Structures are given as C-alpha cells and as structure tokens.
UniProtKB/TrEMBL annotation:
The keyword Repeat does not apply. The keyword ATP-binding does not apply. GO terms for molecular function: steroid dehydrogenase activity, acting on the CH-CH group of donors. It comes from the Bacteria. It comes from Streptomyces bathyalis. Residues 8-427 form the FAD-dependent oxidoreductase 2 FAD-binding domain. GO terms for biological process: steroid metabolic process. Pfam families: FAD_binding_2 (PF00890). This is FAD-binding protein. InterPro entries: FAD-dep_OxRdtase_2_FAD-bd, FAD-oxidoreductase_2, FAD/NAD-bd_sf, Succ_DH/fumarate_Rdtase_cat_sf.
Length: 465
C-alpha cells in the first residue's frame, strides 16, 4: 500500500483525533487519518470511555437552569488539582468546552444530552454531556461516520505515524508512516496532529513515571504505547506532568468490565476483603484506585442495592457488568457476607454505617463522607473490584492552541498534540482527575488544532491541494 498525495493535515490516531479531522475538513483542508489498530472503533480509549464531555455554559445547561461558565469550571479544576494544573491549558480547555460541545451537536450532529441524575466528584455544576448508553463506542462510531462522509478525508489503517519531518526552519513538512510490512514512506503535510493517546500500555514508561500505578491492571487501548510522546521528544519538544494519570477503583475483577462510579455516587459503598470501609468513596474514582491498591490483596467490593442497580442501567458498561454475572445478590447482609466470603460482622457494620448516615443523622462519617443519596435496602448486591490504570495524563507540552512546544517554550510549526499525547489538566498523580479530563483534551485539543491550522491558511498560506 502506498499513499501518494500531499495533504494539509495528517492525524495520527483515530480516536478523539477524528474531531480534528472533521473540523479540518469543514474548513476545506485535506486530511489523512492514520491508525495502527484495525479495530479502533472498539479498541481505543475514546471508544472505551463513558462518553462524558464537560461543557461549561452550554444551551442544555441554560435550558435546565444550571448556572455555569468557564470561570467556574476553571475554579473546579484548580480546586481538584490543588492549584497544580497548567493554568494556560486549563483556561483554554474550560473556555472551549461549551463551543466544542455545541459544535459536536450542531456540526457533527451528535445527539447529546446533559447528565442530571447524579454528579461526579469535583464538578460543582452539572456540566457533563453524553450520548444515550453513555459509552464512547457510540460517540466514536458517530464521528467516524461523519468523517467518512467527507470526500477530503482519507483513512489509512493499519499503519502508524512513526516520525515527522521538519524543514531548515524547524516547521513540519510531512509525516513518516510505517506499514505492517515495515515499509515506510513520507507523506508531505503542512500539519501533523499527534492524537495517539498516552503511554498506559507501555509498562516501562509507566514504571518510570508513575511507579505507584505499575501494578494496577491496565484497562485501555493496546496501542497507547507513547508513540506521540516519542515523536515529539525526538524533535525537541518539551514534556510535562509525566506522573499524571487516571486510575479507576471500579473495574470488576470477574468480568474485567467497568462497574462505574455512579454506583457510589448514588449511595453505594466500597469495602475491602475484610468487609471494612476504608475511605470517603466520593472523593473520586481516580485517587480511590490507589487507596484500593493499598488494601490486602489489592481488591475490594462495591455494595449496592436494587435502586442503585436500576439507576445505573443507563450505562452500557454497567449493563455489561451485570450481563457478565459479576454481581452477587442476597436478601440480607449475612447471606451477602457468605456469598462474598466477607466477615459478616464487619460487613454488617459497614452497611449499618451507610444506612445511619443516609437516614439523616447529619454531618460527616469517620472518613469525611457527607453524601449518601438514600439508605441501602435489601436485596443487596456486591461486585468485586480491582484498581486499574485507564490512561496517562502527561505528555508533550502544548499551548492553548494545541501547538506542541519545544524546550524553550516556543511552538514547533505545524506540530500539534491532543488527548493523552499532550500534557493534561489533572495536575500530578491521580488525585486531580475530574470526570471528562480525558475526553475534553482528546476532542477539544484536536478540534482546536484544526482551528489553528485553518486560521493559518486563512492568513494567506494556501492549502496543500
């Protein structure tokens, strides 16, 4: 296979990068999307997400009477990261979040709705927008369909971008593409968007940059090997926040499917293998993964009831967990303890504590948790969970225009990065992750990269063809 044409933009990665491809095509640019995974529609991190996209100040919020805006979103990011997030990138993403969501609905015809049935930790307003089923596979398939309908977008799969070429000034002139046969060719291009995700599947890099996550089960795309990071560093780019990542404490051990944190936010609790609670579950699913990993056996159980089960049925991931038989049901706590092999006295005390707090005793519990939606009621269910690494949040340093920056802080002309290939807005470690911090940079920076590139052409530089 040979691709014998010059293009305006090469997009390395067919996940969130498809938003950039679609936006560039709308602007009249020619685009080539390259991905190494023949099964990218179900195998990359965008497709594996819960399709939660933050938008601060959208029309859906306005219609629902939700007061929100970029400043409030930025304050939430700062609070969750304890001020450690890159203020420039955080402000840029908070500012473009609403225009991005509205563009996805209006230009990409994505059927979005505002999530109002529960709130994710750290968001002070209901600002997450999603699709029916709340699963990234539906989001990605929709974007893919829109991209394929664009005559100026080509897709090259399986193949991978392994490098970029620069001119004497240091601006991008093309992308080096390698095929499964190991044959390489250079496709002339005026811009390259590195949308290859992070390096969660690269155990050596994970161990080096985030050793506390090295033993966590990786639950992400197999091609998230750090390709974009390697390409950028080779060309003199800077990196940032390399220790940042999204963990998750709700991966079902039996089925290896996502249980989802809605179970907790609707009133569920987590206990360890002794049946004891060990923290405030509402602090966040990312940081709670580390707490779970520190318990005996690095595993625990989420305890819920029929009400929570029914409320979480809107999530495709949760339904798959149920269908896989990962939930154990019982008519009383003693029977649940027997089925889970947990200490019956400890489990009974943990459930009783939830019931007491949820029944209106007020204040916070011994871990600081203040919110329990309703008391747990029989019949009860429990699902065994293990800590997981979902994706990394550190990468190539970028500015608010999605331009990759060199070690002096200047942009490398024509080189862009998005999603996990770029540094994120989650600060350091796992504590600063907010729901949507993965998809917003994946979709938003890709979209912004196309805007930046098309703006450059609008100022008289022309197009490649």
């Amino acid at each position: 296979m040979r691709y014998q044409a010059a293009v305006d933009l090469v997009v390395a990665g067919a996940g969130g990068g498809l938003a950039g491809a679609l936006r560039a095509a709308e602007a009249g640019l020619s685009v080539l999307v390259v991905d190494p995974d023949e099964h990218f529609l179900r195998g990359n991190n965008t497709s594996m997400s819960t399709a939660m996209i933050p938008g601060a100040g959208t029309r859906w919020q306005s219609a629902a009477g939700v007061e929100d805006g970029p400043e409030r979103f930025l304050a939430d990011i700062s609070a969750k990261t304890r001020g450690a997030a890159d203020p420039v990138l955080a402000a840029a993403l908070a500012g473009l979040s609403a225009p991005l969501v509205e563009w996805l609905a209006d230009s990409a015809d994505l059927p979005l709705h505002l999530v109002r049935d529960f709130s994710y930790p750290g968001h002070s307003a209901d600002r997450l927008h999603t699709v029916d089923g709340r699963h990234g596979s539906a989001l990605l398939r929709h974007l893919y369909g829109r991209v394929r309908a664009q005559p100026c977008v080509d897709l090259l799969v399986p193949a991978r971008v392994v490098d970029v070429t620069l001119d004497a000034v240091g601006d991008v002139t093309g992308a080096v593409i390698q095929y499964p046969s190991a044959y390489r060719e250079t496709v002339p291009a005026r811009g390259v968007l590195l949308a290859t995700n992070g390096y969660g599947a690269n155990r050596e890099l994970v161990t080096r940059h985030m050793p506390e996550a090295a033993t966590a089960e990786y639950h992400g795309g197999q091609f998230s090997l750090g390709d974009g990071l390697e390409i950028g560093l080779r060309q003199g780019a800077a990196s940032a926040f390399m220790d940042a990542y999204q963990g998750h404490a709700a991966l079902a051990r039996r089925s290896r499917t996502l249980v989802g944190w809605a179970t907790v936010m609707h009133g569920g609790i987590m206990v360890d293998t002794a049946g004891d609670r060990f923290g405030d579950e509402t602090t966040g699913y990312s940081e709670f993964a580390a707490a779970l990993a520190a318990r005996p056996g690095s595993r625990g159980w989420i305890v819920l009831d029929r009400r929570i089960h029914d409320l979480c049925a809107s999530f495709t991931d949760f339904r798959r967990t149920v269908e896989a038989g990962a939930l154990l049901w019982a008519d009383d706590v003693d029977t649940l303890a027997e089925r889970t092999r947990l200490d019956p006295e400890a489990l009974a005390a943990s459930v009783a504590e939830q019931v007491s707090r949820a029944s209106g005793t007020g204040g916070h519990d011994r871990f600081g948790r203040t919110y329990f939606e309703q008391p747990l009621r029989a019949p009860y269910a429990a699902v065994e969970v293990v800590p997981a690494l979902f994706h990394t949040q550190g990468g190539l340093a970028v500015d608010g225009e999605a331009r990759v920056l060199n070690r002096d802080g200047a942009p490398i002309g024509g080189l862009f990065a998005s999603g996990g290939a770029a540094h994120g807005i989650s600060g350091h470690g796992a504590d600063g992750y907010l729901a949507g911090n993965g998809l917003l940079p994946a979709l938003g920076l890709a979209w912004q990269a196309a805007n930046t590139l098309s703006c450059t052409y609008a100022h008289g530089e022309g197009t490649a063809r």
